[in-house]
Description:
The protein contains six helices and seven strands, in the order βαααβββαβαββα. It is α+β, with helices and mostly antiparallel strands and 159 residues long. It starts with a strand and ends with a helix.
Amino acid sequence: xxxxxxxxxxxxxxxxxxxxxxxxxxxxxxxxxxxxxxxxxxxxxxxxxxxxxxxxxxxxxxxxxxxxxxxxxxxxxxxxxxxxxxxxxxxxxxxxxxxxxxxxxxxxxxxxxxxxxxxxxxxxxxxxxxxxxxxxxxxxxxxxxxxxxxxxxxxxxxx
Length: 159
């Protein structure tokens, strides 16, 4: 398994994986009508600029098969997305991607994210703190229940 920087050319494959994850993984915590609308949404306009800015990390196997990806909004110091192929869950791919995304973040500031409800335990294990439940205004027009979370910057933690 290897990680590399994501490119604009990767976006169709990244979005296809994201859609599959929404249908298969997120469906354990959200009602079918929400999953249908969420999965049907196109990549938001801000997705490509985040990738172009160097905020995307892609995990692949030796054959170049996409295993997962993470995206960070560098300006906002916020994890925008983290998805792992559902067939590869529990193999450390998400943890590796999160570590790579965190390495891109500003160590002087807190790192923030809006976690889907199914992902909250993962982020808690990774050292994030829960700030409270919220509604994430998804670009598709739906309001997704989520957990606002943060992690102190590396320089604040003494890393």
